[in-house]
């Protein structure tokens, strides 16, 4: 399969079909037994996984916290990717894009599952990576908020030239915002 650059590719399919497994192969979290994966024309098996993950950034199905406050969580991705930390204005803008209406010094542990998902989206957005791998990034949100958040996230990612690959259970998200849809099923 080909994943087009600067587009949004949605991966859909039944539970257990291998969607997360496929995504994890794209940044060397898993190594395929067979076949090869190329990134920008080069086989990823030759790439350093840490360097690869600085530009091919993943959000896992269960959102992780990387610090106490919202601010710390937002800065963590930039620190990991050795990029300049964000200003308060940039962080506030990122929170606006992902529709998370909270102060930067809020304790992240107080956030609900859906708010943690949006915080994760804000964190990776600030990194402006070459590619985003998103595993069910809005699964805890109601349908209306999910569509709103993904719409503004994809616009923002596209503005800096980011490629989005997302696993989604939502055919609505896939149909409305997927430039490409990859459907996988169990054999
Ligand atoms: N680390 C692992 N070791 C062994 N089996 C695994 C591992 N990770 C996933 N699997 C199995 O591989 C299959 C595909 O799992 P995967 O998580 O990729 O599915 P999925 O399509 O993302 O499912 P869901 O929609 O339920 O999240 C499942 O049967 C799962 O149990």
What does this structure look like?
The strands form two sheets. Strands 4-5-6-1-7 form a five-stranded parallel sheet, sandwiched between helices. The protein has a single domain, classed as Rossmann fold (3-Layer(aba) Sandwich), CATH 3.40.50. By secondary structure, it is an alpha/beta fold. The protein is 40% helix and 14% strand. It has helices at residues 19-26, 49-55, 70-80, 88-97, 113-127, 143-159, 171-177, and strands spanning 8-12, 38-39, 42-43, 56-59, 131-135, 163-167, 180-183. It is built from seven helices and seven strands. A hairpin with a 2-residue loop joins β2 (38-39) and β3 (42-43). α3 (70-80) packs parallel to α5 (113-127) and α4 (88-97) crosses α5. The chain binds adenosine-5'-triphosphate. Adenosine-5'-triphosphate is lined by residues 13, 15-21.
Terminal-residue CA separation: 17 Å
CATH superfamily: P-loop containing nucleotide triphosphate hydrolases
Radius of gyration, CA atoms, in whole angstroms: 16 Å
CATH class: Alpha Beta
Shape, principal axes of CA atoms: globular
């Amino acid at each position: 399969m080909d994943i087009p650059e600067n587009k949004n590719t949605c991966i859909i399919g039944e539970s257990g079909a291998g969607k997360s497994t496929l995504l994890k192969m794209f940044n060397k979290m898993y190594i395929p037994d067979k076949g090869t994966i190329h990134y920008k024309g080069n086989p990823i098996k030759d790439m350093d996984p840490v360097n690869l993950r600085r530009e091919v950034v993943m959000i896992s199905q269960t959102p992780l916290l990387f610090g106490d406050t919202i601010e710390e969580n937002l800065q963590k991705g930039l620190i990991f990717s050795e990029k300049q930390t964000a200003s308060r204005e940039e962080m506030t803008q990122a929170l606006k894009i992902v529709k998370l209406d909270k102060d930067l010094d809020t304790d992240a542990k107080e956030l609900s599952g859906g708010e943690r998902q949006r915080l994760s989206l804000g964190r990776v957005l600030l990194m402006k990576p070459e590619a985003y791998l998103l595993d069910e990034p809005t699964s805890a949100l109601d349908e209306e908020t999910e569509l709103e958040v993904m719409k503004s996230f994809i616009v923002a990612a596209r503005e800096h030239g980011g490629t989005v690959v997302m696993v989604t259970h939502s055919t609505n998200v896939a149909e409305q915002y997927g430039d490409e849809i990859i459907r996988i099923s169990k054999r």
